[in-house]
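Hi there, hope your week has been kind to you so far. Do you reckon you could talk me through the fold, stretch by stretch? I've dropped the whole record in just underneath, so have a look:
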Amino acid sequence: MLILAVTLVLFYAIISVILYNRNLDLLKSEVKQEAEYICTAVNISGPSYLEQMSQVDERTRVTQVDDEGNVLYDSSSEEDDMENHGTREEIEEALSSGTGEAVRMSDTLGRELYYYAVLLDDGSVLRVAKSMDNLALTALNVLPVMGILAVVTMALALLLAKWQTKRLIKPINELDLEHPLENTLYEELNPLLVAMDKQNKEKEAVSNMRKEFSANVSHELKTPLTSISGYAEIMKNGMVRPADIPVFSERIYKEARRLITLVEDIIKLSKLDEESVELEKEEINLYELTREVVSHLAPLASQKHIRIEITGEQVQCFGIRQILDEMIYNVCENAIKYNNEGGRVSVWVGNTLEGPKISVSDTGIGIPQEHQERIFERFYRVDKSHSKERGGTGLGLSIVKHGALLHGAKVSVESTPGKGTRMEMLFPRDKG
């Protein structure tokens, strides 16, 4: 409708200009022809002819001017009342070249006139003039017709636009959002339908993952709670000898610690999922941070007679210290938990061509090939029968994966059952 309105306005302006020029051309032709007739008659009959024809056509103004610009005759005014016309454009042209013309507002009549002047045989100038509509008046005369045309055209365009829009929108309103690719629709909407189908699949996958996560959380929380409740009930009913109370208390304490660890891991993972980590990134020395983690895990390693060592060089990484600490801790802790008695854990930190890297190798039980792609899933355990004994929650490596995504890092695993595992975390090079 806006384009049509602009088009109509432009069309109206162009038509007005064309009509004005067309009327001007017709008027010029008419005035020139009439001037030639009057000129011929005056040359034959003399100036007295002007007095005889003055009342023939009141729309035509006839003026005779001598070679000095004095008005000898005018059909619309008294000659004595008129000023000298020697400076008029058309008079000057006629005196110099035989004919002259001009379009201007008449000071005497107060209207726009077309003037055409012809040099007579006696040396005076005969000027014929007719009033004409100016451009504004021409546009005003065209306005009623253009107004009616605009109303009819815009009304028709509005009806067609509504009908066409309704016809185009109808298939979209009837779109099957659950199965977008099954719709027969416009080719231009295919990218949108493909994106909707992809989003639906992602939503379904997320929904299934949430259901699985909820089921796993319920199971994982229920196991230590059941143990704690069972041990407490036995002690409450007096079914435990005084000498065995420390043993039961130790079991309750371990299950409670396991429960606390599980809840803490779930909270950490949820924060990473929601990207609600409020800490800002900073320059961190990976080697020093890893050395601190190794020192904290040294008591755990010594309990299993596992030797843990760190080598490498000082290297900087731009990241969130708390998250990086959790990532390194979980990887090193797993290397200790799933290692053999008297085994070894080697940690290397340094710079590579691709960026800072942390490599953790152990001489533990290893991970079968078919399980290596799934170890980063939540609650997934390779050795389910011994996972409780080793104290794992099944969320450690999932936290590592989410932390890596947060830092744009890559995590890779190489493992051979019975020979050990090497896990590497490669961080992007600091562009700053």
